Amino acid sequence: MASATRPAGRVDFHIAIICALPHEADAVTLLFDQFWDEGGDLYGHADGDTNTYTTGRIGNYDVVLVVLPNMGTSAAAVAAANFRSSYSGLKLTFLVGVCGGVPKIGECDAFLGDVVVSKSIIQYDYGRQYPGGFKVKKTADGRANKDIRSLLASFEMELNRERLQTKAREHLSLVQSAALRKRRQADYRYPGLAEDRLFQPNYAHKHELSCKLCAAESDTFCELAYNASCTDIGCDEAKLVAREHHLEDGQFTPEIFIGCVGSGNTVMKSGEDRDRIAAANGCIAFEMEGAGAWEEVPCIVVKGICDYADSHKNKKWQNFAAATAASVAKAMLERYTLEDGLRAATRNAAHDNDRGTERE
Ligand SMILES: [Zn+2]
Ligand SMILES: [Zn+2]
Fold it and tell me: What are the Nucleoside phosphorylase domain coordinates in residue numbering (predicted)?
């Protein structure tokens, strides 16, 4: 790709990517074609903004990337507010990373490594507790702005989703080869179908025998069980849900699911609650930042499924799911068009910059 000219100032950045965790951002950085901050931060930030930014170019767009300082919806809201004060020209923001997936979306099975894209976001733990139960308060801004809505609508056409998937698969192999070339510690290879295990929703991850806490009738399980793998504590394979996943030539292509993403301040770790809340709110995945970031910056959540939001421990998919999400986000960005005025302004800024004119 031809080397582009760096933007003159912060206001010339129209695309942002927010990640909750460094390992999610690591995958994204492997898809940058160029960085603007190799020699240090050229753009600075607004007063009071404590975020640290990475700037560069992905495809035809200058992109600013930020990693949130803490998890949860309120930390995301604060960071996103700062983000907006420093980068006032943002038009499209992606929240990229990993999430807990709902294993059955409509008629389709969702597998680990598949990617969820938010058409709307619901904060499922925010609402009113009535005597008869909890009622989620639907926020009016749960829907995306017009720009984002039309981009998402285009992906609801099967043809466009196929195109996204094809490009995402290309980007995924780029992430994998770049990680090897740069000797990154993270392993972005597909962990394998044998590692993709879905247990029945009511089968909890706990010691079967000789543990008082785990044997108690309630849903409690001991700290030891919490930190151990399913193999270590002997989760019963007879309780696995049998599903068929077709890999093309043994290669994984992420399926892309567009729908409502459930956002909350606690990590969803229960198969039964997952299914109950998903059914009640129509959500297809669970994560912790979308609702907070959304309050400040209209954004699209693009997250790879790294577990099934149940109690069974599985850390093996974190990097792979971060990589599939980053790959889908890049493929989406490639199909985004800035409005004409901004495209012209961006071109002029690049031109001014060529001539060494400082605009800020
Ligand atoms: Zn136990
Ligand atoms: Zn388990």
Answer: 15-135
Average pLDDT for the chain: 88
C-alpha of residue 263 to centroid of ligand 2, in Å: 24
Distance 216 CA to ligand 1 centre (A): 10
Write the pLDDT tens digit of every residue in 77-118: 888 899 999 999 998 999 999 999 999 999 999 999 999 999
What letters, b where the CB count within 10 A reaches 16 and e where it falls short, cover 212-232? eebeeeeeebbeebeebebee
d(CA 276, CA 272): 6
220 Cα–ligand 1 center, Å: 9
What DSSP character marks residue 65?
E
* 111 CA from centroid of ligand 1 (Å): 28
- Please tell me the distance between residue 117's alpha carbon and the centre of ligand 2 in angstroms: 27
Q: What is the predicted pLDDT for the residue at 140?
A: 44
The pLDDT score that the predictor gives to residue 200 is 96
Which residues in the chain belong to E strands, given as ranges?
15-19, 34-35, 53-58, 61-67, 92-101, 104-105, 108-109, 115-123, 127-130, 133-136, 256-263, 283-287, 299-307
Percent of the chain clearing pLDDT 90 (strictly above): 61
Q: How far is CA 222 from the centre of its chain?
A: 30
Residue for token digits 């709902």?
102
Measured in Å, residue 227 CA sits from the centre of ligand 1 at 10
Dist. CA 224 → ligand 1 center (Å): 6
Cβ contact 255:273 at 8 Å: no
Cα 244 to ligand 2 centre (Å): 20
Q: Token pair for residue 190? A: 């597909």
Q: Does domain 10-196+246-354 have CATH number 3.40.50.1580?
A: yes
Which-ligand-closest: CA of 225?
A: 1
Q: Give yes or no for residue 270 having a pLDDT over 70.
A: yes
Extents of the domains making up the chain = 10-196+246-354, 199-240
